[in-house]
Amino acid sequence: MSTGYFEQGDEGEQGGGPSLNDLAAVSALSILLVEDDDAEAELFTASLHAGRGARPIRLERVARLSEALLKLEMDPDRIVILDLGLPDNDGVEAVRRLVNHAPRTPVVVRTSRAEESVALEALRAGAQDYLIKGGAKDKDVMRALQFAAERHRVKRNLVDRSDELREDNERLARLSMVDGLTEALDKRGLRQVLDRELEWSRRRGSVLLALVIDVDDFGGFNEVHGRAAGDRVLRDVTRAIQASIRTTDHVGRLQGDRFMVLLPSTDLAEGCLVAERVRLASTGTRRHPIAGHVGVTVSLGLAHVPDTTETLDDAVELAVIQLARAKAGGKNRFAWGGPAGEGELPTIAEVIERIRTGHDLAPVKQRITHLETGRIAGYELLMRTTIPGYEQPDALFAACAEAGLMTVVDRQCFEQCVIAASDVDGDLKVHLNVLPSTLMDLPAEALLRAFPTHRPPSSWCIEISEQRLPTDAFSLTEVVRRLKESGVSIAVDDIGYGHSSFESLVILEPDVFKIDKRMVTGIGTDPGDRERALERIVSVAHALGAEVIAEGIESAADMETLRKLGVEYGQGFFWGEEG
What we know:
Rossmann fold; alpha/beta
């Protein structure tokens, strides 16, 4: 049905209606009539014209609710007169859609006497008033529209004021949890965060750590340089802490010069790295306009917070015990404590120096088994350290990345593993891990020179983690080609974790696909979608002429499932611990 505009009022009256916020106080009414029946539309228009008095009216008519919604998007400042018997949306549901779509637009429904109960439901759904078709007097129609506009204006004002009050209360609540000097959380804010993170830790079985930071000799600093200089130092330290932690961590000020960081879902090794970053960022010489150049150091205590912890004070006490050990050890350092015990961790610089000199490195072997025959096919040499907090390679290499010494330490680990492989039978394959960044930094000859002459090059396999591959895999093709020409095999490790890059596998043409243990462990009893995914990976590997090794096999069921999928080799605790 066609629609059009009908200007009702004094001759020459033109233009759109006013904002509904002031609708009841001005002379013009802008109305959108939603009515599919031509006769009913004419009757309503006549009644409106007769009852308007001297008041001008701007009336537009549409026949469907969908048309009305489009009109309201362009001009919501009008009153909607809604028939409850529309072809595209019948009854009270039409009111709900209108109110949700245009919450600032008043709605008056029209219905028959037989449907008066429906009209009452429409009021509960958000309509301001209702009119009975053929039953309302002309003046009553106009009065209903004016009252509806006024009721809606009052209602919207109340809603707006309520929204403003809620926003003000939320802002005040946030301010009540923030320290005025540093803008970090205060103790109340830390309590709320701790309660939430402990609940999350209980549900997920994750580890929560608490790190307490204390500015060394701050009391004397205030006495010498004054409170203003001390406040500036505290603000600087807060910024340094905030810049050093992760987006998931929470920093707050406990009191004076003491701060706390809560580290959710964080193991000890990662927590130690965060603590060392905070220490390095907070330590140094700062220039103050009055005090001049001032030296600042901090001591830190890191502790595991059990999910049975009840109060913030309990969590603080755990970390303060470690803080006291750091202070007693000479300050400007951190100490840690957890379920496995406690210790005083070396700095990253000390870790790197111990690794570079070959101290504390402990290569271990993990057997690679031929799944069909059960015979030992080779060993993977893995690097571990005896440095507290850095026993696993992920923690060690994260520390190396912090120091910008990834290649130096990776080469050291590679050479130590080559030496440790001297007692492996010459007929068995030896797998060694090398970072892609090391392959790009070192020529292939530097790696080949590390291999002893009594073992043929074909007995070595260099593993490259797929998750560490550069975006441009072509940057590795030259060194990979040179290694393969010398007889060394290439394996791509960690396949199936995250988003595997088929392009990189095609470019590098590895001799071995190594499946990440997260795709493997438990597949014999709970395959889920993994079995189908593994089947596709194995198919791709064989199409590229590569063999497949599955890591993380822990049961006979896992092994049998993988064997049936065409996986040739396996590793895992099913054949014993690392040795």
